[in-house]
Design goal:
The structure is a single chain. By secondary structure, the protein is of the alpha+beta class. The protein is built from three helices and four strands, in the order αβααβββ. A four-stranded antiparallel β-sheet has the order 1-2-3-4, sandwiched between helices. α2 crosses α3.
Length: 127
């Protein structure tokens, strides 16, 4: 192993150690953007529409029509404080949802993503 490789490894190790020593505080604002909904169940409904194949805008409009108000919308970069991370499983699909408190309004909104299906589409013998 060359001196350059050892130096890079030492630098990487020191930065990993540094990250472990000073974790980000949950009350520090971060910049977020994307689609957010007002309630957790509305965000899960939005993600279900996306998982079914809807584009983000169509999924947001569908949820908004069902709820009867503008709850899901695209947000330009804004400052927000991360509050909660939760995992929800519905109909075999895993959803990761997160809530943020938007500043300066101090309004909680939810965002998230989905991670494929746990349902088998084929039997093991067919693989």
């Amino acid at each position: 192993m060359s001196f350059v490789s050892l130096s890079r490894a030492a630098l990487l190790l020191s930065s990993v150690t540094l990250c472990g020593v000073s974790p980000a505080r949950s009350d520090d604002p971060v910049r977020v953007s994307g689609y957010f909904c007002g309630q957790k169940h509305e965000q899960v409904a939005f993600l279900q529409r996306e998982a079914a194949g809807d584009a983000e805008e169509i999924a947001a409009n569908t949820v908004n029509k069902v709820v009867g108000k503008q709850t899901c919308a695209f947000f330009l970069p804004a400052s927000a404080i991360p509050v909660k991370d939760e995992t929800v499983m519905s109909d075999g699909i895993v959803y990761k949802v997160q809530s943020f408190i938007f500043l300066p309004e101090k309004v909680e909104r939810w965002t998230g993503s989905y991670f494929g299906s746990l349902q088998q589409t084929r039997n093991f013998s067919e693989l």
